[in-house]
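// run 5 | inverse folding | seed 20
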C-alpha cells in the first residue's frame, strides 16, 4: 500500500512538471536591448526588438524587485522600429556603339547612374573608367562586281580559241565577258589592205566579297553605396510600475491585563539578621507578560487537516482495491 501511494505521488509530480518544461522549450526567451529607469525609480521601461515572425510571448512579464522597489508589468505596447540599412553595390552596364573610338564611347556612358534594387535599396552609382571595355558586336558582308582587262597581241587571226575563258585576279576567279580585236599589221592582197596580225582585248568580270564590323558592345562598371529604411523590426516596450518596499514592522505582542493575585503577608524578619558573608540576595521572580498568538492554534490544525486528508485518500484507495478484488473473485 505504501509503495502504491508513493508511486502515485511520483507520477502526479512528473505530470505537473513535464507540461511546464514543454511550454518553456517551445517559447523563445528574449532579452531587452535597452532599459530605461525614471529618476524617482517608479517606472522601468525594457525595450525588446523582435522580428515580424517572432512570438512576443517570450518577453518576461513577471514581477521583480530592484533598488528598493517592487515592479509590476502594467503595459506592453507594440511599435514599428524602422532601421537604416546600407551596403556597397557594383552594377555592370552595357551599351551599343557604332564606333570603338573612346570619345564616342564615353559620350554613351554617363558619369553617374541611379539604381534601385528589387529589395528596396536605392543609391547613386559612379562610373569606374578603368572597367570600360569595347568588343566587336558582329560582322556583316557585302559583294560587288569587279572587272579586269587582258590584251593578247600578235594573233594570226580573230580566233577566240586563243583567248582564256577565265583568269585569276586578287585571289578570285573572273570569267570572260567581251573581246575587242585590234589589227597590228596590214598587207596588200590584190590591191586590198588586209590585216595579218591581231591583238585581242578581253574583258573579264567577277564578284568581290568583303566583311565589315556591324557595331561594338561597350561595358562598364558603376559602383557606390545603396541604402534603405527597413521596417522588418518590431519593438515591444515592457512598462513596469514600481512601488517602494516598506520594511515590515514586527507586531507588538498583545498583553492581556490580569488581576494581581493576592500577596501573602510577608513574615517579619528581624533587622539584625544578615545573610552570611558571600551569600547573594535572591532575585525576585520576573513576571512575564502574557501574549496570545494565533500560530499556536493554526499550525496544529493545519497538520491535523493534512494528515486527515492523507488518511482519507489512503482508505479510499484501499476500499477501491478490496472492491475490485472482491469483484474479481466472484
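// decoded
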Amino acid at each position: 500500500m505504501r509503495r502504491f501511494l508513493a508511486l502515485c505521488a511520483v507520477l502526479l509530480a512528473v505530470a505537473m512538471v513535464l507540461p511546464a518544461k514543454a511550454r518553456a522549450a517551445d517559447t523563445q526567451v528574449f532579452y531587452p536591448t535597452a532599459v530605461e529607469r525614471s529618476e524617482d525609480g517608479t517606472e522601468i521601461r525594457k525595450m525588446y526588438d523582435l522580428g515580424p515572425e517572432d512570438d512576443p510571448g517570450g518577453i518576461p512579464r513577471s514581477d521583480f524587485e530592484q533598488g528598493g522597489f517592487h515592479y509590476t508589468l502594467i503595459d506592453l505596447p507594440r511599435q514599428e522600429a524602422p532601421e537604416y540599412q546600407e551596403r556597397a553595390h557594383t552594377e555592370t552596364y552595357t551599351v551599343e556603339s557604332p564606333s570603338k573610338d573612346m570619345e564616342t564611347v564615353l559620350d554613351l556612358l554617363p558619369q553617374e547612374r541611379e539604381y534601385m534594387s528589387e529589395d528596396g535599396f536605392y543609391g547613386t552609382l559612379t562610373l569606374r573608367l578603368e572597367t570600360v571595355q569595347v568588343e566587336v558586336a558582329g560582322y556583316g558582308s557585302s559583294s560587288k562586281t569587279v572587272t579586269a582587262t587582258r590584251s593578247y597581241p600578235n594573233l594570226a587571226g580573230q580566233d577566240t580559241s586563243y583567248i582564256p575563258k577565265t583568269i585569276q585576279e586578287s585571289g578570285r576567279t573572273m570569267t570572260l565577258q567581251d573581246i575587242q580585236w585590234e589589227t597590228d599589221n596590214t598587207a596588200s592582197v590584190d590591191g586590198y589592205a588586209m590585216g595579218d596580225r591581231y591583238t585581242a582585248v578581253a574583258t573579264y568580270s567577277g564578284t568581290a566579297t568583303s566583311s565589315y564590323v556591324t557595331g561594338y558592345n561597350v561595358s562598364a562598371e558603376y559602383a557606390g553605396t545603396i541604402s534603405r529604411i527597413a521596417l522588418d523590426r518590431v519593438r515591444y516596450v515592457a512598462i513596469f510600475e514600481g512601488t517602494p518596499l516598506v520594511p515590515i514592522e514586527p507586531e507588538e505582542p498583545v498583553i492581556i491585563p490580569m488581576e494581581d493575585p493576592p500577596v501573602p503577608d510577608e513574615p517579619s524578619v528581624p533587622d539584625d539578621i544578615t545573610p552570611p558573608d558571600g551569600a547573594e540576595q535572591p532575585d525576585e521572580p520576573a513576571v512575564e507578560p502574557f501574549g496570545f498568538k494565533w500560530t499556536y492554534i493554526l499550525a496544529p490544525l493545519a497538520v491535523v487537516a493534512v494528515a486527515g486528508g492523507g488518511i482519507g485518500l489512503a482508505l479510499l484507495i484501499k476500499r477501491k482495491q478490496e472492491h475490485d478484488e472482491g469483484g474479481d473473485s466472484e
